[in-house]
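Dear Dr. K.,

Following up on our conversation at the group meeting, I've run the structure prediction for Flagellar hook protein FlgE from Microvirga mediterraneensis. I'm pasting the input sequence below exactly as I used it, so you can double-check it against your construct before we proceed with anything downstream. Let me know if the numbering doesn't match what you have in your notebook.
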Amino acid sequence: MSLYGVLRSGVSGMNAQSNKLGTVAENIQNSSTTGYKRASTEFSSLILPSSEGNYNSGSVTSRVRYTIADQGPIAYTTSPSDLAISGNGFFVVTDPGGSPYLTRAGNFVKDGRTGNLVNAYGFTLMGYKLGSGAVNPSLNSLDGVEPVNMSSFAMQASGSTKGTFKGNLPDGAPVVALPAVSKQSSLQVYDKVGNPIKIDIALSKISDTQWSISVANGSSADPLTGTTSMTLTFDADGQLTGPSVLNFGIPGGEPFALDMAGMTQLAGEYNVTGEANGNAPSAVKDVEFASDGTVYAVYEDGTRVGAYRIPLANVSSPDNLSPRAGNVYETTAQSGGYQVGFPEMSGFGSIASGALEGSNVDIGTELTAMIEAQTSYTANSKVFQTGSELLDVLMNLKR
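The predicted structure tokens came back this morning:
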């Protein structure tokens, strides 16, 4: 074995162990970084051809690998926009230039300037905007995703379209001649822009088994349109028979269906309840994230409206993704292309709101690896030092 080979082996070993110490230092620095995945250095021998009487020393090559597929611990927080993935998949995010990346770092907050959800590294969370139809993402493409924007949740009002009016009409009430009224109630509904309208409901007992019901606009002189009255007929057991839905139009609103299927005529007090859909103008009070990735806008009146659905993306070999600054990854030829789906679908994990995935670094393991690398580095430096001393002896002999 030549002295040159000895020196080369020593230098190669020191360089390899220096790389290992570098990954250990990176891991320790990021042991508290959200979604960070541990780096490790793997070694392989580089063997040179040798003859029977002369050994040519090779060297050591090193490669840095990331354990991206390993799940980190889940820790719960007080912020509902903190998101953690339990299982397979990555959040789809973009940088300020619009380039897509994958990440497990779900510490998202609302950007006060744009209204987008961005994580601590400035990457914007992407999702599919929900409309009237179902969202069908491309299985191998990120086409159609857009920034999840909290400012897009504006005030909303919805017109009433249906309601119920049910309860008991007293069997012992005296029969009256129209237009006399036996009992009266009211129901509040809303037009298309959220104006409240009171619907007056008049009930008149016109025979032993029949009641006449009529509705009128109790808020203004604008009349209701369509059918505004009908007759309710009851059998001998006091149960409603025949038609039970009154269809009419609300001024400035939608066609409205008042369902009275739950009405009875029994020997009891007049006791009725009613409700209707629709709401007055209401602002967004909160945002909720479901485990299936649906983002709901919660309004002041309690209404929950699905606004976005967050997809998850995965690749065939996550450990071969290429890490980039900001705790994000991009695909490579070795990792394979995007596989896109929604949380809780086959092959994808679920999303937990108010939680973060921690680093998968174990400090004890890293300290052990650091001691091993330091010992190997010292041993290789001794090899280099010995070779250098032998080289000095050889040079002195030539003199």
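Two things stood out to me. The helical segments are 3-29, 363-398. The first helix runs from residue 3 to 29.

Best regards,
J.T.
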